Structure of ATP synthase complex subunit 8:
Amino acid sequence: MPQLNPAPWFFIMTLTWFTFMFMIQPKLLSFTQHNLPSNKITSSTKTTSWTWPWI
């Protein structure tokens, strides 16, 4: 069965992986993010408990 022979597919997989790791990924990581997270102060709102009329 030819799909069990890893000889041609293993080389293609490693070549693709090295291409992604050393050529494509640094180019993608060099882009700047436009929406950087800011340090917002979260103010907690005081909530009142719900009064259920049937209890």
Summary: The mean pLDDT is 78. Residues 7-29 form the longest helix (23 residues).
